[in-house]
Design goal:
- Helices cover 67% and strands 3% of the residues.
- It is mainly alpha-helical and 137 residues long.
- It folds into 2 domains: 1-73, Orthogonal Bundle (Multidrug-efflux Transporter Regulator, Chain: A, Domain 2), CATH 1.10.1660.10; 84-125, no CATH class.
- Strands 1-2 form a two-stranded antiparallel sheet.
- InterPro entries: DNA-bd_dom_put_sf, MerR-type_HTH_dom, MerR_fam.
- Keywords: Coiled coil, DNA-binding.
- Pfam families: MerR_1 (PF13411).
């Protein structure tokens, strides 16, 4: 059995996150000793890892709790769990496309700044100077 501190070290979560996840019902197998201190067995550690992984996907705690509840219902919920993962997969793909567009924009800006630094182009990046540029056009 592991304490909160040990569970945090094992999973790479903070102690606060371990407590928070247990308080939110994401670790159904967590136990308490006679002093009401949380104690974690291997199954509890697995639930913590699972919650951590899902949280890293951007899944909200409320949805992770729904996923945990579905897992506890057993194999009959595999289709629902799969649908949940597919939904968040689509959201992640959308975020990835948005991130790619941001990177493309930043690469264009970096090239623009490089041209300015090499004096191949005027500095049109500073909004404070745009009024000067408009007069030149």
């Amino acid at each position: 059995m592991y304490t909160v501190k040990e569970a945090a070290l094992i999973t790479g979560l903070t102690e606060h996150a371990v407590r928070y996840y247990t308080d939110k019902g994401l670790v159904p197998s967590v136990q308490r000793n006679k002093n009401n201190i949380r104690m974690f067995d291997e199954e509890s550690i697995n639930w913590l890892y699972g919650a951590k992984c899902l949280k890293q996907t951007g899944m909200p705690i409320k949805v992770i709790k729904m996923y945990v509840d579905l897992c506890l219902e057993g194999d009959s919920t595999v289709q629902e769990r799969c649908a949940l993962m597919m939904e968040y997969r689509e959201a992640a793909l959308t975020q990835l496309e948005d991130a790619k567009r941001r990177v493309d924009h930043l690469e264009q800006k970096a090239a623009q700044y490089q041209a300015i630094l090499e004096q191949r182009a005027p500095d049109t990046t500073n909004p404070a100077n745009w009024h000067k540029i408009e007069k030149q056009v």
